[in-house]
Amino acid sequence: MTNIDQSWEELQARCRDCRACPLGESRTNNVFGMGDRHSPLMFVGEAPGEQEDATGIPFVGAAGKLLDHYLFAVDLPRDRVYIANILKCRPPRNRDPEESEQEACIGYLREQFRLIQPKVLVCLGRIAAMKLIKPDFRITREHGKWFYKGGVWMTAVYHPSALLRDNTKREDTLRDMWAIRQKLEELGVAPEVEETNE
Ligand code: URA
Questions:
Q1: How far is the CA of 62 from the centre of ligand 1 (A)?
Q2: Which residues of the chain have pLDDT under 50?
Q3: Ligand 1 centroid to 138 CA: how many Å?
């Protein structure tokens, strides 16, 4: 095992046993993150929902299916990106993560970020954008804008759950997703699109 594989193993094991906040007692599974650990592109959502808590996999419920649809639309399949959340455990009834929970959990995300070293980071929704881009982030006004921080390009798109509630945001989101693909191309790190004969 390489040192980097070992770091991933250790981080995941620590996270699996975590009791740093009360959500550690109520979770079914913790949802560490999933995808290509060498991807130039990392997505960060808010916190696991019911399906994610049941399976341990991020974005597998209705919002996740919609996210997959957008990823597919811009030739960024799920297995070519890395997806994680601010919180690794589900808050009761999917309420917003509390500040103390975010603080208790953010170290895992920082470590994931350090190991992956993505070139582009995309916040899925307001909560992740406020934590990772700036505390006063306004998703309606600032989705799709680019912020260059610490050598990484960051942006935010509407959370897929918001798109399930409000169809009118979908066009903007498709535009934002294309801009993400474009940014990867500009940086020379876009995943190759596989040709099919269909
Ligand atoms: N919503 C999120 O923010 N993350 C998930 O993993 C699922 C739903």
A1: 10
A2: none
A3: 19
